[in-house]
Amino acid sequence: MEAHKPGHMSLNTLSVKGSDLSASALYRILELRSAVFVVEQKCAYQELDGLDLRADTTHLWVEDAHGIAGYLRLLTEDDRIRIGRVLTRADCRRTGVSTTLMNLALRATHPATTLLSAQSYLTNFYSSFGYEVSGQEFVEDGIPHVPMQREVPRDATE
Fold it and tell me: How many structural domains does the chain have?
């Protein structure tokens, strides 16, 4: 666990494999994912997909004094890693939490190629971390998304 201070906030970052996730941590994660994706974004979908407790799933999150401030999940797909379920708690947006979280994800996934499906309005945010659009825009749960990929430079794996 490391401490980060974007702006005035004191944050702790956590990384836990799905098979090591406690019931209370899983509950807090699912509660926030539901609040953001199902309630706030009004997307009625099967949020529980059976992938959270797998040994090759990694949960990364950032906590402040009020709980989980930002979260994402890493899924292994062959020789690549998919970043998904990326979110920031409403009161923590535009505070640096998302940047802290993405930097944590890049350190955790290096040197693998990473994929994500970005909500279209966030393309510039993900581009700032080296992601490039890798396909056509599509609509998922009523929200426009674009597939993005970050290739690892050849010299970074040597």
Answer: 1
